[in-house]
Design a protein that fits this description.
With about 350 residues, this protein is an alpha+beta fold. It is built from seven helices and eleven strands. Strands 1-2-3-4-7 form a five-stranded antiparallel β-sheet. The longest helix has about 55 residues.
């Protein structure tokens, strides 16, 4: 009896190449497939990395611009409480007042605040006096001495402070372009404040270096005429020692100005002579001040334009502070100061 094979087995025996195909891929085929898959994977990974870097850079640009907007808004709010703003001329000073020319010169704010605010690579840009409410401790002291204030038997300084119901604080903003290891940006903005009293004061002991300006004599601060002798004297008590605080980092240093289409050159022609603050201002942070100098018209509000430019240089994914990375678009804020210029 003859052995019978299934039909499919006969067909497989009659076609040996079909048996070879059923054995799978050859080594060369696997290597080629692996190589092609690797190339495609690397291309996709490269695309993902580039997209991630682009998103990170865009986010950094947006964050820096938001920080610059927050900083210029803060300065604008500060200026809203100002009663007098110095222009470029009297920020630097024209001389020390004498008995005969008391109202014709200004000694310069930068000469009577800590030297660190205007030395090396830090320069003061904007200075003004703003009103502040009395500290809680001083206000309590006023309430406790109502009778003495009414009959004039209380301390003279306490009387003046309590009757006015507020105090003046000198505020100065400066730009620092130094290579400070603490900060990674090209430049940063410092804010210096000289209040009459410390926030936690409970006695009328003035801050070292402070002198309360008289109405109409802001330009001549810290000098005033002695009420008894008529002589011009420096009214400060000691030298200022309170430190400045950083308001914002990642400000441009002005070395590489924005593209011509958006460039803003420090120019205050609209505001009159000597209004640029400071002289030789950097295009990354400067102010234009209408009034605030010798010969300024009286009885009008001051107008202040502040310009600020940021740069992401120094952030992760960006070149360092010494690079030529192009800065962001300039931001500007214009404020009408509520105080009347040199009111009497």
């Amino acid at each position: 009896m003859s052995r019978r094979f299934p039909i499919w087995l006969k067909q497989l025996r009659s076609h040996p190449h079909k048996r070879r195909r059923s054995r799978g891929f050859t080594l060369i085929e696997l290597l080629v497939a692996l190589l092609v898959g690797s190339i495609i994977t690397l291309l996709l990974l490269g695309l993902v990395v580039r997209l991630t870097e682009t998103n990170a850079r865009d986010a950094a640009y947006s964050q820096v611009q938001q920080d610059m907007q927050a900083a210029i808004d803060f300065i604008n709010e500060d200026l809203r409480e100002a009663v007098f703003v110095y222009n470029g001329q009297c920020l630097q000073g024209t001389g020390v007042p004498g008995d005969a020319n008391f109202t014709q010169v200004c000694p310069g704010i930068v000469n009577y605040i800590p030297a660190a605010m205007n030395s090396g690579e830090r320069r003061s840009v904007l200075a003004f006096w703003r009103t502040e409410p009395l500290p809680v401790g001083i206000d309590d002291l006023c309430r406790a001495n109502v009778a003495g204030i009414a009959d004039g038997s209380a301390d003279l300084l306490l009387q003046n402070v309590c009757i006015s119901g507020s105090t003046y604080t000198l505020v100065v903003y400066a730009i620092d372009t130094s290579n400070d290891a603490t900060w990674r940006g090209k430049a940063r903005i410092y804010r210096y404040a000289l209040p009459q009293f410390a926030d936690n004061a409970t006695t009328v002991t003035e801050t070292p270096g402070y002198a309360r300006p008289k109405e109409g004599e802001f330009l001549q601060w810290p000098f005033t005429r002695d009420d008894n002798t008529g002589n011009v004297v420096d009214a400060r008590r000691g030298a200022p020692s309170n430190p400045a605080q950083v308001l914002v980092d990642y400000v441009d240093d002005g070395v590489n100005p924005p593209a011509p289409a958006t460039a803003i050159t420090p120019n205050c022609d609209e505001f009159g002579a000597n209004s640029l603050s400071p002289g030789g201002a950097l295009p990354s942070f400067y102010a234009c001040v209408r009034g605030g100098g010798i010969g300024s018209p009286t009885g009008q509000n001051q107008d202040v334009l502040v310009t600020l430019v940021g740069s992401p240089a120094g952030l992760p994914g960006f070149p360092g502070r010494g690079s030529d990375l192009r800065p962001l678009s300039p931001l500007q804020s214009r404020t009408l100061v509520r105080g009347i210029l040199q009111k009497r």
